[in-house]
Design brief:
Blueprint: H1 2-11, H2 15-28, H3 33-46, H4 49-65, H5 69-84, H6 90-103, H7 108-120, H8 124-136, H9 141-158, H10 162-175
Length: 180
């Protein structure tokens, strides 16, 4: 099916046909990241992002029912990325990432994306929680220091809790004497 989609897109100059063919390919192998990437590219190019998100959500549900929770999360992450980037629908993207975390609390991609999206919509309390959760997964100083600094800035500048930022900066100083 991928070869057929290649012919449709490149030889026949019919990206809409290639999109439909790749949707069929996704149904056969939803784990194929290459197919998903091509679908995202064609969906954005062809203005069918909303349809593609629906396809990703449907395949995620099928994967979940089939006991493939990690794949379901990946497909929902693809949809959430499109909601945020291609559609500019930040509330919908946030809701999608939050739903992923409810079912898969250990996934880092949704936490990282929520750390980017929350400040764009002024949800600084939720940003604090996301940054704290991300810190739970980081052991190395080089990974912890930027998160601690960001969390300290959010506490001091956005949540008006500078006293809560002090212990974080003390930890930064212990981890990296050159950071403070």
């Amino acid at each position: 099916l991928s070869r057929i989609a290649d012919l449709q897109e490149l030889q026949l100059n019919a990206p809409d046909m290639a999109f439909v063919t790749l949707c069929r390919a996704l149904k056969h192998d939803p784990a194929d990241a290459g197919v998903r990437d091509r679908l995202k590219r064609l969906g954005v190019k062809g203005g069918t992002v909303d349809d593609l998100c629906e396809v990703f959500e449907d395949e995620a549900l099928a994967a979940e029912v089939g006991g493939r929770g990690a794949l379901a999360a990946e497909l929902r992450e693809d949809a959430a990325t499109l909601y945020a980037d291609a559609m500019g629908d930040l509330p919908r993207a946030i809701a999608a990432y939050e739903a992923i975390l409810e079912k898969n609390p250990g996934r880092l991609i949704p936490l990282e994306q929520l750390s980017v999206l929350y400040p764009k919509v002024g949800r600084f309390g939720d940003l604090e929680k996301a940054l704290r959760r991300r810190l739970m997964f980081k052991d190395e100083a080089r990974d912890r220091v930027p998160l601690l600094v960001e969390l300290g800035q959010v506490l001091a500048d956005r949540l008006d809790r500078p006293d809560d930022a002090i212990p974080l900066l003390v930890e930064v100083r212990k981890l990296d004497m050159n950071s403070v």
